[in-house]
Amino acid sequence: MQELLLAVARGLVDDKDAVQVTVDEPNEEGITVYHLTVAEDDMGRVIGKQGRIAKAIRVVMRAAAVREGQKAMVEIG
Question: What span, in angstroms and rounded, lies between the C-alpha atoms of 25 and 40?
């Protein structure tokens, strides 16, 4: 899951070395939170117009989590 998020984010940004993903342990509801950080100059590329790219990233991650029997949430910051 973490590798998927890294691959998607690195495909969108210019500064690929600045992309980082940290993962929290599942909370009491079983949701694993993935924190995506990118360079400040690339933030607009990851969020997209009206947040469309960010929404798409979240949908892909939720779908991948369901396939593995998990729950996932992505925070971009």
Answer: 26
